[in-house]
């Protein structure tokens, strides 16, 4: 039973404070009470009859409580669930053999989705809180002196714990490493006699062995330690994480009680972790289960070492606080390990472990004076934050609560803020102080149903339905906001089809209700906004703005288009209907080379605003109209007989001298340079020409004329000579060929060449 005063106290201190959130109700696709209260932490639902106006959608019933009250909804008709805390177990804090350090122990929370709820958790360090200490020792050969000292100090360790608390127990275990290469020398002779000193007895290497379960009998602890012998293994003893894992998960065999659990780990060397087992062909991952048979770890040579994360999780699950008592050379290594294991500490062990008693007392004092509370795995959609109200400071919005230097019998508190983001089935999680077995169980439910007690009236919903939370639930065959539409032979799908624009998917553009196949548009929540149209597709607010005003303040918005006043134009009615702004100095609109649109000249290609006066990229008119300049200014040239007709678009003035940077120089028909200026007038292809009376004609060069004449005669003479020579050569060649043919015809046919015959008189022919 929960004491009534305790229940009342916890209810009074329930803070129910909310995180800094904008108290607004965001309504998206809200049609029912349930949709409303689950859409936002500050949304409330009005179930009052006839609360909405004609054409107003049911979502108007969903708003903040304050807004609903302003609109006339009475407080009794407003559904606005709140978060409720109910203490289930709240045993007062106390010291003694069965101390209570954490309160409350169990609560139920009804959480409104999206609304943070805060409740207090109290903690007080109890005097004489029971302590279980498990001494895990490295028994490799390098720890020989340490084992001797621990044998001498066995009862002193328990006596030191008894000074802290009268309820103390102590146990003992030892480790070396996996008994496979390369961790242990597996030579048969070495296994028979592992000790390097021939006269000394040493036990063979082993992985981990549990020697003594937790006991309050100091003499038994000393007796068991005295029976231990050092291992002859000279290799680095690095199987410590294996041993710690087994000590953590084999709780029944170790004998862990509902107490503060300390695991003192002593070594003078490092440690192996997950993946290192591959060196010994051990590939199976560590499974984090207990494998003690006959107090020996039987899976040492079959399972890999545990990872640091796996070990930290198992230590945390079993509320075990490690104390790493290591030599100076290993301090930095184990401090890094301690940083990854919550509620752990590192102490410097002397070379022979003579300071182990002092080290344990100091380490326990440091661990117990630091109080950390945290939660286990949260349900999906639940978040939690802590505010730590410590004696020396206050820390807000942290992922876990933490206070340091907490003295015995001093009470501290933590404000825990829990938020459920959505509706969910009943869930639970635990909050507990690290290193202690006590816990607070928090059971969560989310009230996502509206409990409406509407009184039924036969006249409601045109007698074709009944009221549920203020809105009509129609009988079969009837639809509509007041069940006024009888479906008849048509299905609701067929009726809704007449409310879909262009056979789309949305009914009445999602801005109205389809009643008997006709859209009834909703009344907008935005002041002044009207929704209309066959499919509720139009409104009077969705138009262009100019200077922050709808339709520039000079027109009306009609279904996305601005209907401008008489003197205004433009898509946002931003322009006056006037050409005055577009006129140049001559009073011509856009210089005759464009049109005025919304008080801005829209020029023809090439011409530039503001008045389309210049065309920097256009070709110069000077070469094009050189013939006109010649006929207008000098009455000669190709247009001399039709000058007035061919050059009517050019007015001209003759002057003695032209002075301007944009002077044109073009040659006339007499090869003289004409000098003039072309000014473009308003309109297209209209120019004014200012022509200089003087032309620049070249003077004749006598020397050049004579030189060119002589050159011409010489070239002509040489050409005639070459032609005569060629004709003579061809004629001679022709005569020579003719001579050759006649010579062949003049030979004597009776002429024969003389022959000589020589005969040998001695040759008979045989």
TrEMBL record:
Name this protein carries in UniProt: Integrin beta
Signal peptide bounds: 1-22
Limits of the Integrin beta subunit cytoplasmic domain: 725-766
Ranges annotated as spanning the membrane: none
Domain Integrin beta subunit VWA, chain residue ranges per copy: 32-450
UniProt domain PSI: residue ranges: 24-74
Membrane topology of the entry: Single-pass type I membrane protein
Sequence similarity: Belongs to the integrin beta chain family.
Domain of life: Eukaryota
Residue span(s) of domain Integrin beta subunit tail: 622-701
InterPro entries registered for this protein in UniProt: EGF_extracell, EGF_integrin_1, EGF_integrin_2, Integrin_beta_N, Integrin_bsu, Integrin_bsu_cyt_dom, Integrin_bsu_tail, Integrin_bsu_tail_dom_sf
Localization in the cell: Cell membrane
Keywords carried by this UniProt record: Calcium, Cell adhesion, Cell membrane, Disulfide bond, EGF-like domain, Glycoprotein, Integrin, Magnesium, Membrane, Metal-binding, Repeat, Signal, Transmembrane, Transmembrane helix
Coiled coil stretches, renumbered: none
Lineage: Eukaryota, Metazoa, Chordata, Craniata, Vertebrata
Main localization, broad class: membrane
């Amino acid at each position: 039973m929960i004491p009534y005063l305790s229940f009342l106290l916890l209810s009074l201190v329930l803070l129910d404070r909310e995180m800094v959130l904008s108290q607004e109700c965001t309504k998206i696709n809200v049609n029912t009470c349930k949709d409303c209260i689950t859409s936002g932490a500050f949304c409330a639902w009005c179930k009052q009859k006839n609360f909405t106006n004609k054409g107003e959608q049911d979502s108007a019933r969903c708003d903040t409580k304050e807004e609903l009250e302003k609109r006339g909804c009475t407080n009794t008709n407003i559904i606005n669930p709140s978060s409720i805390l109910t203490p289930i177990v709240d045993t007062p804090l106390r010291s003694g053999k069965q101390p209570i350090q954490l309160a409350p122990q169990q609560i139920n929370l009804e959480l409104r989705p999206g609304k943070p709820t805060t409740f207090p958790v109290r903690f007080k360090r109890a005097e004489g809180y029971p302590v279980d200490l498990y001494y895990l020792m490295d028994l490799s050969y390098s720890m020989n002196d340490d084992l001797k000292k621990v044998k001498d100090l066995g009862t002193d360790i328990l006596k030191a714990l008894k000074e802290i608390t009268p309820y103390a127990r102590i146990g003992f275990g030892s480790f070396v490493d996996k008994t496979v290469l390369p961790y242990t020398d597996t030579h048969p002779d070495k296994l028979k006699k592992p000790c390097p000193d021939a006269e000394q007895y040493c036990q063979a290497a082993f992985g981990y062995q549990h020697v003594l379960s937790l006991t309050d009998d100091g003499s038994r602890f000393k007796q068991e330690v005295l029976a231990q012998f050092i291992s002859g293994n000279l290799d680095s003893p690095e199987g410590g994480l294996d041993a710690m894992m087994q000590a953590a998960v084999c709780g029944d065999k170790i004998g862990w009680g509902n107490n503060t659990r300390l695991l003192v780990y002593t070594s003078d060397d490092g440690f192996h972790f997950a993946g290192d087992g591959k060196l010994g062909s051990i590939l199976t991952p560590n499974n984090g289960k207990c494998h003690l048979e006959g107090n020996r770890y039987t899976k040492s040579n079959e399972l890999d070492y545990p990872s640091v994360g796996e070990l930290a999780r198992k230590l945390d699950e079993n509320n075990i606080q490690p104390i790493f008592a290591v030599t100076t050379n290993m301090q930095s290594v184990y401090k890094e390990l301690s940083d990854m294991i919550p509620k752990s500490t590192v102490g410097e062990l002397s070379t022979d472990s003579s300071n182990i008693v002092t080290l344990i007392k100091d380490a326990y004092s440091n661990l117990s004076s630091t109080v950390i509370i945290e939660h286990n795995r949260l349900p999906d959609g639940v978040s939690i934050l802590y505010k730590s109200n410590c004696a020396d400071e206050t820390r807000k919005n942290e992922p876990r609560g933490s206070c340091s230097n907490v003295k015995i019998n001093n009470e501290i508190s933590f404000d825990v803020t829990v938020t459920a983001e959505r509706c969910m089935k009943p869930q639970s999680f635990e909050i507990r102080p690290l290193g202690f077995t006590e816990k607070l169980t928090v059971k969560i439910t989310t009230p996502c149903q509206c409990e409406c007690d509407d009184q039924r009236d036969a006249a409601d919903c045109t007698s074709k339905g009944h009221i549920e939370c203020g809105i009509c639930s129609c009988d079969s065959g009837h639809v509509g906001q007041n069940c006024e539409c009888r479906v008849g032979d048509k299905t609701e799908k067929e009726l809704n089809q007449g409310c879909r624009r262009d056979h789309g998917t949305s009914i009445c553009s999602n801005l109205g209700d389809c009643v008997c196949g006709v859209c009834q548009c909703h009344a907008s929540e935005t002041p002044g906004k009207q929704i209309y149209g066959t499919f509720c597709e139009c409104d009077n607010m969705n138009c262009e703005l100019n200077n922050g005003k709808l339709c520039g303040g000079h027109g009306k918005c009609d279904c996305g288009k601005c209907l401008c006043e008489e003197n205004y134009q433009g898509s946002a009615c931003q322009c006056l209907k006037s050409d005055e702004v577009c006129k140049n100095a001559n009073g011509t609109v856009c210089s005759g080379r464009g049109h005025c649109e919304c008080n801005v000249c829209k020029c023809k290609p090439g011409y530039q605003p503001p008045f389309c006066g210049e065309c920097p990229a256009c070709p110069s008119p000077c070469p094009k109209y050189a013939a006109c300049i010649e006929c207008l200014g000098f009455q000669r040239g190709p247009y001399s007989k039709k000058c007035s007709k061919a050059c009517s678009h050019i007015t001209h003035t003759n002057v003695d001298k032209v002075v301007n940077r944009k002077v044109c120089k073009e040659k006339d028909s007499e090869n003289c340079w004409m000098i003039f200026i072309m000014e473009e007038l308003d309109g297209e292809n209209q120019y004014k020409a200012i022509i200089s009376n003087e032309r620049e004609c070249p003077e004749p060069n006598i020397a050049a004329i004579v030189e060119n004449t002589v050159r011409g005669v010489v070239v002509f003479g040489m050409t005639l000579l070459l032609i005569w020579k060629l004709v003579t050569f061809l004629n001679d060649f022709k005569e020579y060929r003719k001579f050759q043919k006649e010579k062949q015809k003049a030979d004597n046919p009776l002429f024969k060449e003389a022959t000589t015959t020589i005969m040998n008189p001695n040759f008979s022919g045989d």
